[in-house]
Structures are given as structure tokens and as C-alpha cells.
Amino acid sequence: MTSVAIIVHRRHGFETSGYFLRHIADLWRERGVRVSVVRDPAARAQADVGVLHVDLTVVPPEYLALAARYPHTINARVADISKRAISRHLVTRADSYDGPVIIKTNLNCGGMREARLSRRGGVLGRLLARCGLRKPVPTISTHEYPVLPSPREVPPAVWDDPGLVVERYLVEREGDLYCMRSWVFLGDRFTHTKWWSRLPVIKADTAVRRAPLDEPPPADLVARRRELGFDFAKFDYGQVDGRAVLYDANRTPSVGNVMHDQLRTRLLILEKGLEGVVRP
């Protein structure tokens, strides 16, 4: 295997981005792998391996068709990472569940990527206009997802908005702190981190503490990965009542604020997962 084609959206940057894959691609190049970035969905498949890295919740059909042209494509089976496709903890207005809930956008990352494309026009903007959808793509800062004590507190407008979802708020706790675990994997290689926060919506940049985890991810989360078809991703989850609760599955993860002295160590682990993904 000598060449990799990274498939990205024609309107998205990659070469100067903070994506894990951009840094991993630099390591592949260091060991002689020819890496190209492909933005044209009509391009010919001229690589041994494709990597589907379109940073949208739902991958447009033309990019899925391009991914199918390669002998092997990483994440070829992961076309939709919306909350409705990923979450097992959604709540409807008719449910009997009466515990705490969190309101999120159905779209990944608060819907920010889709909102930018909508404002700039392009295929998504034209589709919205053609369908007569004048309201903007629903967005919420992922730092500001509301947590409410029960579904009874959810405003009626939220239930009526197809761009929003309500989930059971199932969170890992240690004393007064909230906890989240992040499992970043490529093939059979992975890194594993735990975060602690004083805030109920846990983000890396609001954590008061973080530490690498030596243990592998729990078996039920590994089974969920296999069921969803991911080859490369970051899964954010918590351990609640002895089971893994998947909060978010992101096929285009960013390094975020990973400490510089830890980043190369993590990348050197992940970049070796390529062979495991394409092995017959």
C-alpha cells in the first residue's frame, strides 16, 4: 500500500486545519506514503486507499460515490452521524421517562458546519431555498446545550423543531465533578483520555483535569463501533451504571487543545492503524 486519497468537501479547508487526520497524513508522508487531498467528487480513484473525511453530518451522495471507487475506503459505511442515527437515548414528547434531559442539535457539532455552507450558498443553500426553508439551519453552541430537570421543562418549540433533539442526560460523576471519556481510534490502534469538569456539558477546553487511560474501551462501546461501521473516529462517552453511554461520534475529529508534548505520541499510535483497516 503506497497511496492514500483523503476525500474532503470542496468548500472545506484541510491542509492547514487542526484535524487529527491532517497530522496523521504528515506522518504517513514521512514514511513514504503518497497522500493526496481530493475535493472533486468526479475525480478518478487514483490511490490504494480512500479516507472519507467530509466534515458534514450527512455526507452528500456524490462523495459517497467517489469513496466507493477506491479498493479500500476508511469510513465508507458512515454516511450519517446525526444524533438520530447515533443516539440510543433520545426522548420524545410521548415517552414516560421523567429524568434530566439535554437539548442538542440533530446535526453534529451544533450544526455549525452546515450553517456555514448554508450562508455561503452551494448545494446545501440551493436545496434549502428550493424546499422553501427560509429559517436558518438550527445551531446551538455545543458549550451551551441546555440541561433540564425533566422533559416537562422542554419548551414546546423544541419538540416541534426537527433540527433539535432531546436526550436523556446520562452523565458520569466523581464527587462534585462531571466526567467524560474520549476514545480516538484508527483501525486497531487507539488513544483513550478522561476529562473532568465542573460544568454539566463537558468540553475539552473547560476541563479542570485530564488524564490518559491505559485500559481499552469497554466491550459494549467496541460493539457499538462495529455496529455503526466506523474505522476512524472519536467517540465521547461516559460510564454510567456499568455501561458505556455514547454522547457523540465524530468521523472528522480535531486535536483540539491536546498538549503539544502529548500530540505526537498520540499521532504515532494512530497512524499505524492504517494497515489494520485495509488488511484483507
Outline the secondary-structure elements.
Elements: E1 3-7, H1 20-30, E2 34-38, E3 49-52, H2 61-67, E4 72-74, H3 83-86, E5 101-105, H4 112-120, H5 122-130, E6 147-148, H6 156-160, E7 164-168, E8 172-174, E9 177-186, E10 189-197, E11 209-212, H7 219-228, E12 232-240, E13 243-250, H8 260-270, H9 274-278
Parallel strand pairs: 1-2, 1-3, 3-4
Antiparallel strand pairs: 5-6, 5-7, 8-9, 9-10, 9-12, 10-11, 12-13
Helix pairs in contact: 4-5
Please explain how this structure is put together.
This protein is of the alpha+beta class. The chain folds into 3 domains: 3-74, Rossmann fold (3-Layer(aba) Sandwich), CATH 3.40.50; 90-168, no CATH class; 172-270, D-amino Acid Aminotransferase, Chain A, domain 1 (2-Layer Sandwich), CATH 3.30.470.20. The chain is built from 9 helices and 13 strands. Strands 8, 9, 10, 11, 12 and 13 form a 6-stranded antiparallel beta sheet that branches. The longest helix is centred in the first third of the chain and has 11 residues, at 20-30. It is globular. Mean pLDDT is 88; it is low at 121-136.
Overview features:
single chain, 280 residues, alpha+beta, Rossmann fold, D-amino Acid Aminotransferase, Chain A, domain 1, 3 domains, 6-stranded antiparallel sheet, 4-stranded parallel sheet, 9 helices, 25% helix, globular
